[in-house]
Amino acid sequence: MSTCNLTPAERIRAAFEKRRIGRIAIYHAGFSSWAGSILLGREAFVGGGINQWREAVALWQGPDAHAEFLRRTRQDAWDLARVAHCDMIRTTYWRLPEKPAQRIDELTFLYGDPGGDYIVRRLDPVTELYQVVDQRNSSAPSTVDDLEREVIEAEKNLATYRPGKEEFEDQFLALEHFGPDYAIPSKGYSIAVPNRDALWLEAVVARRDLVARLLECQCETQCRLIEAQRDMPFLYLMGGGDFCGKNGPNYSPRFFHEEMLPRLQRMSALAHRYGKYTVFASDGNLWPVADDLFVASGTDGFHEIDRLAGMDLRALRTRYPNLTCFGNISAITLHRGTKEDVVAECRDNAEAALELGGIICGISNQVVAGTPPENIFAMIETLDEYH
Known about the structure:
Layout: H1 8-16, E1 25-26, H2 33-40, H3 49-61, H4 63-83, E2 102-105, E3 108-112, E4 118-124, E5 129-136, H5 148-159, H6 169-178, E6 186-190, H7 198-206, H8 208-228, E7 236-240, E8 244-245, E9 248-249, H9 253-273, E10 277-281, H10 290-296, E11 301-303, H11 313-319, E12 324-326, H12 331-336, H13 339-356, E13 359-361, H14 373-384
Parallel strand pairs: 1-13, 6-7, 7-10, 10-11, 11-12, 12-13
Antiparallel strand pairs: 2-3, 3-4, 4-5, 8-9
């Protein structure tokens, strides 16, 4: 078969098999609603916080409105994948399926008990962030030891967790819509020390036993998701967990080696037993743990490759010849650079893929709100030259 006639799914498979086929494969991690709306020519129900706010509005309006939100956000995710000429399909965008208790104003909702514990979130239409602006939590942990309550709750939930086909509704709907010619990613490879506050990072040192128990719950949850998919047609299990900044990991490479690595190895081994590929995502500088993550763990792919943190495609593919690399087009270049900057970065991305194989081209994270339209179109048009 001519490489020009390969289906999108075959182009993705070629990247995982490290075959150079004369054409690139494309997967864009995400689009803000701003960017999606530019591409679709209508308000796009995609993005991050803004889509969580939309779900709050829909839940507030009632079951019919919520059903329409779900239909619309799936359709817009699919339409964006087609417009951006993706070979792998992002099936859904951010959700927050909890009905608010109170609508404070057009942009602000209260969740929980107005007279007790609650969280207030407000949408910033410019940044599309749906941020916590007020909260009361009488049971919030104040010391590392208090985190044990969260661990006990996670262990209790795990005891009864048995994922079935309903867990993969988004994947099956996308498969029904696109058919077998496109790659449909699934889940089952996520693990991370929570980074929402400093207590968990403090616990890495002061109560490592608690962190280990939480990671074990996460690992077992993911293994059950993998097991549930053993006979499902989804080859690519996407996951990961942010744990790095531009200067390196939030915790020591030794901790990664002793606590994260064995669990990643278990997850990878189970996925490989059923013929699946695993993909770990994190931005930041991962070089201090790269040998463990990209070789010893059995991870097949690396997503959200952060060019500006020193994660270079050619260096990664040269040092780790069995690793499939996703992305490496910087959202910052797209947002702040000139059209010429974007074209140059996209050409570098595509030419590395053609030269080395094992690369899926695209934006590493999300095309953020406020990105100049000419830069968005320049990215898509430039990659199309190689696609």
